[in-house]
Design a protein that fits this description.
about 220 residues; alpha/beta; Rossmann fold; DNA polymerase, domain 1; 6-stranded parallel sheet; binds 1,6-di-O-phosphono-beta-D-glucopyranose; binds magnesium ion
Length: about 220
């Protein structure tokens, strides 16, 4: 059984479904710019940083640096607009219970989110105080699928990477957790997170004992 000492939670798509608001923001921008975009294309943007997401959305279309920055800011404005009514009611079922479960085992808990809005979202959800550390879009230069963000979260907690479980809903996030040498738990469909050594359909289904029992 692994010597687990911490759980690092992705935020968007794991603790709350802001993934839907990100999608709506990108869709609105794409429509305004006349760029073909839909929910299927949006799947590739899950867990990916804002600038990387815009590059994927533009799909090779060349724009000036200024126009690029304006588009990224415009999308973020839409996203923040959609978040205005966010409250603890937007926590996904089972999310807080899972954090509490980890803490009751004496483990540390951290946020490992690519979002630069993570602080705002955590406050709106009323869960900032639950966490021992927050690593977000401001913490590192190289975004997921690079391991940097999760390694930063582990360093903030003072826990070695191999003692960390990561809960992720994105393909790039699972890649980042594996690259960090952590125990990756994917939340969502096989097509998206099937490459994680552990997978559950929803956050509510996550069973930490099962993760421990099925990890060497
Ligand atoms: P922002 P996570 C990610 O958060 C989102 O999944 C992704 O859709 C978003 O583009 C990224 O944060 C950056 O967010 O524009 O707010 O800085 O899943 O890593 O918690
Ligand atoms: Mg996510």
């Amino acid at each position: 059984m692994p010597d687990v000492r911490a759980v690092i939670f992705d935020l968007d798509g794991v603790l709350t479904d802001t993934a839907e608001y990100h999608y709506r923001g990108w869709q609105r921008l794409a429509d305004e710019e006349g760029v073909p975009f839909d929910r299927e294309k949006n799947e590739a943007l899950r867990g990916v940083s804002r600038n990387e997401s815009l590059l994927l959305l533009l799909d090779g279309r060349e724009v000036s640096e200024e126009a690029f920055a304006e588009m990224a800011a415009r999308k973020n404005g839409y996203y923040l607009e959609y978040l205005q009514d966010m409250s603890p009611a937007d926590l996904l079922p089972g999310a807080v219970a899972l954090v509490e479960d980890a803490k009751a085992r004496g483990w540390k808990v951290a946020i490992g989110s690519s979002s630069k809005n993570a602080g705002f979202v955590l406050d709106a959800l009323g869960i900032t105080e639950l966490f021992d550390a927050v690593a977000d879009g401001h913490s590192v230069d190289r975004a997921k699928p690079e391991p940097d963000l999760f390694l930063e979260a582990a360093a903030m907690l003072g826990v070695p990477p191999e003692s960390c479980v990561v809960i992720e809903d994105a393909e790039s996030g699972v890649d980042a957790a594996i690259a960090a040498g952590m125990i990756a738990v994917g939340v969502g469909p096989e097509e998206r997170v099937g490459h994680a050594p552990h997978r559950f359909a929803t956050v509510e289904d996550i069973d930490l004992d099962q993760v421990l029992d099925t990890t060497d």
